[in-house]
Amino acid sequence: MNGGVDRTPSGRVDACVVGAGPAGALVAAELASAGYDVVVLDAGPRFDPADREARMERHLRPGDREPVWDMGGERDAYSATGAREYPLNAARVKGVGGSTLHWQGMVMRLHEQDFRLDSELGVATDWPLSYDDLRPYYAAAEEELSVAGASDNPFAPPRETPHPLPAFPPSYSDSLFAEACEELGIATHSVPNARNSEPTDEGGACVGYGTCKPVCPSGAKYDATRHVARAEADGARVVDRAPVQRLVHDDAGDRVTAAVYATPDGTEHRQEAREFVVAAGGVETPRLLLLSKSERYPDGLANSSGLVGRYFTDHLFAGVGGTLDEPTRQKHVGFNTTESHQFYDRSDGARGAIKLEFLNYAGPAPADVATGAETFGDDLLAEIRGAYGNRIAVGGLVEQYPRAENRVRLDPSRTDAHGNPVPDVVWSLDRRTRATIERANEIQRSILEEMGTDVDWTVGPENTGPAFHHMGTTRMGTDPDESVVAPTLRTHDLANLSVVGSSAFVTGGAMNPTLTIAALALKASDHVAERL
What we know:
Its cofactor is FAD. Keywords: FAD, Flavoprotein, Oxidoreductase. InterPro entries: 4Fe4S_Fe-S-bd, FAD/NAD-bd_sf, GMC_OxRdtase_N, GMC_OxRtase_C, MIP_CS, P2Ox-like. Pfam families: GMC_oxred_C, GMC_oxred_N, NAD_binding_8. This is FAD dependent oxidoreductase. By secondary structure, this protein is α+β, with helices and mostly antiparallel strands. The protein folds into two domains: 10-146 and 222-315 and 402-428 and 471-531, 3-Layer(bba) Sandwich (FAD/NAD(P)-binding domain), CATH 3.50.50; 155-214 and 316-398 and 430-463, 2-Layer Sandwich (Cholesterol Oxidase, domain 2). Helix content is 24%, strand content 16%. A hairpin with a 5-residue loop joins strand 13 and strand 14 (421-426). Helix 1 (22-33) runs parallel beside helix 6 and helix 5 crosses helix 10. The relative contact order is 0.19.
């Protein structure tokens, strides 16, 4: 017992899932509903939903910049020794619910071309799956996440049914963008969002707090605690504050036998299972496999290819913004309601996918304007009004092709709270990605200039940052020498070890990855169930 919570291991169970984020929670819920005995181990705590308003206040209060989800310290130490700094802790959560506790909630399917870049364009690598292979799982994932959308995107891949919930209406600033885009011949469409546009069994409709990232106080935005609760209702056991230190295998090196995890008092335990599913994200998943090296696997578990941790990929942000001589009503909602995929697919190898986003949260919030102000009362109000309310911006995600030199490895010179080497993120930008960011900026600037915007900032190749979509570090493929997991998401090297999440992505396109994460998790669940 640790603090009144029983964190001792269960007997040998059917499945042990490492990580209670969106991928792990979905796998646990699927397997538990099918009657299997499931244990989920998560490195972080359970967060009380009643604390979410206080976490929102922590985010909004001037001068208070404590991490909203308690990230930092020795537990979360990391290195970033690549050519470009990677601020890993700026946008991750360790805890039950994982990254969906703080995400923005936009959920798009990858395009058909994303799965066949090599065969169609002669660039990057094809997935071992086609869009059609994943299409039924995409539909199921949209149902599981209660996705709201209008199904009106002319550039999106074919779908079988409308989105489960109606789309959110366009924002006021979307109407300002619409006229300029029409003049420029740029098609716009709605954004599918994993948040309730109307009440569901899981929760009420969005009420517009506007702080979706990093916290939704109302619970209208999907987070993985929904599936954690569903898994527990079907008999799964979820153990928090139980970071897995390593996975151990049998004498033959064919099967994982136990997950060794630590509890808050420092005690180590062994959870045995018939099947193991690692769903710890694109950084901690390869780190765990590398920490699990043995005499049989001296370079890390499931790493006979040498690719565990390789091909670390992210999306890059590109944006242009400024002010208009009229109100734009920013920050009434904390998520995007209009976008454009017009500049995504190409018919030649010059492709660098761009997803344009028409932002609803441009410029500083009133609290940010007030921070450090030397005026008070009516003067302060006038200052806030002068700096807030007429901002406008176009953002976007830009594709980065996987490169082997971008990687997650262990840094033996630094250790975490348990004495393990921390992850070292080695990351850089290539010329293709830089050129794609420049192209995005040109498009964005043309829209704002058409609107008569006084442009005063640009995020381009030199000052871009990551979207914190950690992809590619245990890539999928059919050749064990060129990949870590098979199309079933099971590792090539071990018969009962699966890896789910964005680490299995072969390429990342320019789409937010969570819907594809969910689709792959549902697919993996089917394959694990087949083996049980």
